Amino acid sequence: MGTNEEKPKIMACDFEINGNVKKEAFELFAAAQAKILGLRGYIMKVADDKYNGQLEGEGKVIEKFQTLIKSAAEYVSAIKDFIIKNMKVIQEYTYSTFEVKT
């Protein structure tokens, strides 16, 4: 049988979250979820109701992160959009962890 299975590709993307969420609690929640899933990158508040960031990890894990954030009970009514943009394959990670940028 085939033992030379390809390891999952590392994907990178930009993301944008729009919604009226409390900054500190939401950033800590997003960072904790990303770290649990093994994602790398960052999240940063850019306006009262908007966050931008980058994610690096397996494509299916990035999708899982998006689903977790959108379905979190305390944020489900506050989050209007979670948009993933510029998804591409990268050869290696550029971030060592997931962080909250200020």
TrEMBL record:
It catalyses: an acyl phosphate + H2O = a carboxylate + phosphate + H(+). It holds the Pfam family Acylphosphatase. Gene3D superfamilies: 3.30.70.100. One of its GO terms (molecular function) is acylphosphatase activity. Keywords: Hydrolase. The keyword Cell membrane does not apply. Residues 12-102 form the Acylphosphatase-like domain. InterPro entries: Acylphosphatase, Acylphosphatase-like_dom, Acylphosphatase-like_dom_sf. It comes from the Eukaryota. Its EC number is 3.6.1.7. The keyword Zinc does not apply. Belongs to the acylphosphatase family. This is acylphosphatase. It comes from Drosophila hydei (Fruit fly). The lineage of its organism: Eukaryota, Metazoa, Ecdysozoa, Arthropoda, Hexapoda.
